[in-house]
Sequence to fold (477 residues):
Amino acid sequence: MNMVSEIASAPRSRGASDPAVRMEDVNKWYGSFHALKNVNLTVGRGERIVICGPSGSGKSTMIRCINQLETIHSGRIVVDGHDLTAGGKNVDLIRQETGMVFQQFNLFPHMTVLENCTLAPMKVRGITKAEAEETAMKFLRRVRIPEQAAKYPAQLSGGQQQRVAIARALCMNPKIMLFDEPTSALDPEMVKEVLDTMVDLANEGMTMLCVTHEMGFARSVADRVVFMDRGEILEVAAPDTFFDAPQHERTRFFLGQIS
Amino acid sequence: MIRVFGWNEFLIIVVAAQWTIALSAIAFAGGSIGGLLIALMRVSDVRAFRLFATGFIRVFQGTPLLMQLFLVFFGMNISGFAINPWIAATIALALHASAFLGEIWRGCIEAVPKGQREAATALGLRYYHSMRHVILPQAIRIAVAPTVGFLVQLIKGTSLASIIGFTELTRQGQIINNATFSPFLVFGTVAVIYFLLCWPLSLVARRMETRFSRATAR
Fold:
């Protein structure tokens, strides 16, 4: 094997043995507010993690640190074998390999659904428009709204918009998907269509970290449930154990409140 | 000998409006480029850029346009350039417009919801593409109405260039008045021409404003 192909293949072979995400002693402050306290979490490839906890507990902050929408003050985050704390190039790489879905959808309102889906692949990956549109249609079909491709986000329902947001993220072929309360801004009758899309994704083996209050989703889809409160991870357990025999006092209190 | 204010004198004034339009257009074009730079510096992550842009805006918003014209006009003279009202007026007005448009556009960029930038970043888009394809196209929609509004101010502001000897609408009016001594007729004509230049723009601005507020009402 010659030098060049050896170098080119090196990160991939290293990547395969690494966990998808590894967080080590992560700390973050907003001013004097300690938003993340010594967070340690390792997410394996293909694993589905649901993160729950009361509001202000640091759930969103934690997953936003994984693609560096938030910076951390101490600790280490390694995503797909790339150390985020090394900065620069790695951050760009990781953002391309992680897809994110937001509570408020954050679709680009001045672009059609199709354009929302093709922008990043064309500008970041440098693929042609035809190729990008083909990929976009593939994922729009997968989230079951190919017929909306020419519409603008404002013409769609909340549930449809969120499914477009999922398709848009998938168009970058991410290895990890981050969901930040994807159904919290939706009318109740639209929650199911978005959750169904997420279940499909999980069944295809996507590595997922979801911040959500949908406990039914957590029970049926999650490999592990993470409970956070006041910036700390208090409990990590398989859904059955988590819901039926929660260990921590605050977990029990939280589960009592939402059920 | 006193000339009578007649058709010829009227036409001379009307023709001079072309210099008002030309000066406004060049100052606006220069101010657009400068204003975009100032606006981007103002919202930049780099502290030095922000400080420079803020200082630039403060200075131009805190001094009269007439002083800005004087300073550029006489400043050029002191630094050894030939006295040229054209160049001095364009530079001063373009700088003036850069500061005001910069501040207007900063507000428009910041009015684009933060989630838009975050979504672009999360998709791997870097600064240039995120600005060019996501933030600025949305900011422009918000910016159209206040920008046209400022253009109206700028057109009226060009009348001050008459004081450094630039022969545009106002200066031509003064010249004709010196010959005809009919100030009311002369400056009335001048005012009507300014009005005819500015009023349609105000209408356009208002129409765009209602169109925008309808477009954003979801």
In short: Chain B has a mean pLDDT of 92. Chain B touches chain A through 19 residues (CB under 8 Å).
